[in-house]
Write a structure and sequence with these properties.
Elements lengths: L5 H17 L6 H8 L3 H8 L2 H26 L7 H13 L8 H8 L6 H23 L5 H22 L4 H16 L10
Helix pairs in contact: 1-2, 1-4, 4-7, 5-8, 5-9, 6-7, 7-8, 8-9
Length: about 200
C-alpha cells in the first residue's frame, strides 16, 4: 500500500481530523471519502479497510508526536533544572489549545477494545515510548529507579488526559506536574545548610 500518494495524504489528513474531533466510531469511510474528495475504491486501494486507515492515522500521529517531543527535548538549555518537568510543560501547551479533547491514543483505545485491532499495536508502542522517554529523563535528572519514574510519570499524564475527557478540565496537566514535582522533591536530598560565621 502506497500511503505517500497525494490521495493517501488527503485521506490521512481528513481522517485524522475527523476521528479526533468526532470519534472513530462516529465517522464512516463515506464521510472520509466525501471530505477528502477521493473515491471509495481509492481509499480501499490505499488502506484496505477502515481498521487499517485508523492504524495509519495513529501511526502518522505517533511519528509526528515523537519527533516533535524529541526536537523539543533536544532544544532545552543545559541549565534546565528538570527535564522531567520540562516535558510536562510541553504537554501543557497542547492541553491549552482550544480544540484539545484528550490524548488521541487513549481516546482511540477506548473505542477499540479488540486487542487484535491493528491500531492497538500503534497505541501500545506510543505509550511505551512515552514511558521510556520519561525514564530516560528521570535518569538524566539523577532520579533513582528510572523505570519506576517512567511508569509513574506517564500515569500522571494519562490521568490528566482522562480528566480532560471526563470533565473538560484542561488544567489538570498542571496538577500532574505539581504532583511530579512533589515526588521529585521527596527523593532529592535537601540542599546543604549554610553555616553562619
Amino acid at each position: 500500500m502506497d500511503r505517500t500518494s497525494a490521495s493517501g495524504e488527503r485521506i490521512l489528513e481528513v481522517a485524522s481530523r475527523l476521528f479526533y474531533a468526532e470519534g472513530i466510531g462516529a465517522i464512516g469511510v463515506d464521510r472520509v471519502v466525501k471530505e477528502s474528495g477521493v473515491s471509495k475504491p481509492t481509499l480501499y486501494a490505499q488502506f484496505g479497510s477502515k481498521a487499517n486507515l485508523v492504524a495509519a492515522v495513529l501511526d502518522r500521529r505517533r511519528g509526528d508526536r515523537e519527533r516533535v517531543i524529541g526536537d523539543y527535548l533536544n532544544s532545552l538549555d543545559a541549565t534546565v533544572l528538570s527535564r522531567v518537568l520540562a516535558l510536562f510543560d510541553w504537554f501543557a501547551v497542547g492541553h491549552a489549545k482550544p480544540a484539545f479533547r484528550g490524548c488521541p491514543f487513549t481516546n482511540a483505545a477506548v473505542e477499540l477494545p479488540d486487542p487484535e485491532h491493528p491500531a492497538r499495536l500503534v497505541i501500545s508502542a506510543h505509550k511505551a515510548w512515552i514511558r521510556r522517554t520519561f525514564a530516560q529523563l528521570a535518569a538524566a535528572d539523577g532520579l533513582p529507579g528510572p523505570q519506576w519514574w517512567g511508569s509513574t510519570l506517564a500515569l500522571l499524564v494519562d490521568g490528566a488526559n482522562a480528566r480532560v475527557v471526563t470533565t473538560g478540565d484542561t488544567g489538570a496537566i498542571h496538577d500532574a506536574k505539581s504532583a511530579a514535582a512533589a515526588l521529585i522533591d521527596a527523593v532529592r536530598p535537601p540542599p546543604p545548610r549554610q553555616e553562619c560565621s
